[in-house]
Design goal:
alpha/beta; eleven-stranded mixed beta sheet; two-stranded antiparallel sheet; 10 helices; 13 strands
Amino acid sequence: MNGIGLINATGQPAVAGSFHTLVVQPTSFCNLDCTYCYLPDRRSLRLMSGAVAQACAESIAQQNSGHPVSVVWHGGEPTATPIGLFRGLLAPFEQLRRAGMVRHEIQTNATLINRQWCELFTTYGFEVGVSIDGPSALNRNRLDRAGNATDARTLRGLQTLAEAGLGYSVISVVTPETIDHAEALVDFFTDLPGCESVGFNIEEQEGTDRVPVSEDTAYRFWQRLIARRVGGSPLRIRDVDRLADYVAATRAGRVDHAPYEPIPTVSWDGQVVLLSPELLGITEPRYGDFIAGNVLQQPITAMLAAPATWATSPSSSRPSTTAPTTAPSTTSAGAPRPATATSSTRRSPPARPPTAEPRDRRSSAPPRTSSPLKEKRHDQRSRGPRQRRARATSPPRRRPAAVDSVYRCGEV
């Protein structure tokens, strides 16, 4: 990624040559059909191979960082992966995890969580992030393939996590229908057993006739959340707490000009994007497909060190790869976390980097006529009539550019 630019204040490269968050897609399949999801191939039963997982682990080992890398298992729905196969995908990372070089996170809709998954999370030290938008009336965009509500199934999964002693964070997508219900959302998440924090991602719609969330409405939403937090609400609200931490760091003179960190994202077949997870699967006439390479052919560290010509190179200039494991036709139709609500790059970690947040899957596809070069995570290629994107939005009208880069919150 050489040649992206320099930071004027220091002359350092604008983008770091190392990474401390790696988003991986064990499967492209999801058992839900949320109205705002950007994944067009979420019905495809495709699974990551052990070779891709091994190559990811080797890329982490090669960079030999003094800080741990958060491996965020996203999707699709990662727990739609057969649990035996998923355990096999963890094996290449185990030596690194035991050495303190890797920590695992997962973003899930929790509908498939059972005792076996909880045991796996405990054994491998997972941090768990769950996607749920609110109580039943405010969760109506999260549907299954038959158009049925899914909140009861998610709540059952949350109860299973709580009974296993596993805390979790939540990502809630806030839509035009739910944004006037800040108090109800705070009450709901405060009362969820095991919920440690919540991040609110305000839906942004592009290329659709649907009326988007207005700036004034969003501003009132954040005002209400801040008022609840200041008023003594025990619920940790990711975005509000990040803002408070950033303001405190700025006042103390602790905000530096370190390079921003890329968030490499590896698809089930080994394809890698570097600039932003949401560019995975996107193609655009002016910029190509944003694929920096395939981890089966080249380590991620080498992709980061290469000149940034891949951003405008057509995909045909790179060799194709053979697709790894394909799920059998007998895979359960009920089997489904990635995403992540932060900016596409983050600053290099301080002495001890905070925990990275898993991300939720939200509509991220740009309109056909616009450039996809925008902040957001894990976009994958949707071009349906309900194109829209959900984005993490900080409370102030003009958020400092560094707000999202200073923190790597324990979200997922």
